[in-house]
């Protein structure tokens, strides 16, 4: 019985041509605005950080391009970022970094 009354009220409200304005507390608007600004600053900082290799792997924070299994995610992320045994073996063996074949400069850590 209560569901029928609720359904009827919902139908009437949906069929009504005029929308009732809803007052949103200013605190909610300010919190939303602040969160949006913080998120935008974080994304800009994330994209502009030269030491961060992740932007080369995925262009947006909200759109990861990873498989569902964590183990596969780690492997693909490491491969895309260049973390393979050969280029980074000099760190473990404490040798001089190899030179980049294309630019003839030391490979960065």
Can you describe this structure?
The protein is built from five helices and no strands. The chain is mainly alpha-helical and 109 residues long. The chain is elongated and about 75 Å long. It starts with a helix and ends in a 16-residue tail after the last helix.
Which key phrases capture this entry?
109 residues; mainly alpha; elongated
Inertia-based shape: elongated
Q: What is the rounded distance between the termini?
A: 69 Å
Helical content stands at 55-70%
**Taking all residues together, what is the mean pLDDT?**
73
Query: What class would the helix/strand composition place it in?
Result: mainly alpha
Q: How many strands in all?
A: 0
Low-pLDDT runs of 5+ residues are: none
Number of helices: 5
Please trace the helix and strand order, writing H or E for each element. Answer: HHHHH
How large, in whole angstroms, is the Cα Rg? 26 Å
Q: Beta fraction of the residues?
A: under 5%
The major sheet is characterized as: none
Topology:
Elements: H1 2-15, H2 26-48, H3 54-57, H4 70-81, H5 85-93
Please outline what is shown here.
Residues 1-20 are annotated as: Disordered. With 109 residues, the protein is mostly helical. Helices cover 57% and strands 0% of the residues.
């Amino acid at each position: 019985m209560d569901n029928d009354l609720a359904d009827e009220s919902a139908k009437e409200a949906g069929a009504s041509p005029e929308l009732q304005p809803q007052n949103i507390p200013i605190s909610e608007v300010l919190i939303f605005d602040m969160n949006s600004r913080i998120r935008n600053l974080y994304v800009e900082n994330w994209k502009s950080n030269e030491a961060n290799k992740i932007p080369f792997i995925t262009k947006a924070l909200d759109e990861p391009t990873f498989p569902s299994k964590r183990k596969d995610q780690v492997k693909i992320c490491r491969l895309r970022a260049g973390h393979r045994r050969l280029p980074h073996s000099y760190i473990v063996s404490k040798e001089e970094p190899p030179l980049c074949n294309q630019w003839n400069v030391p490979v960065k850590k």
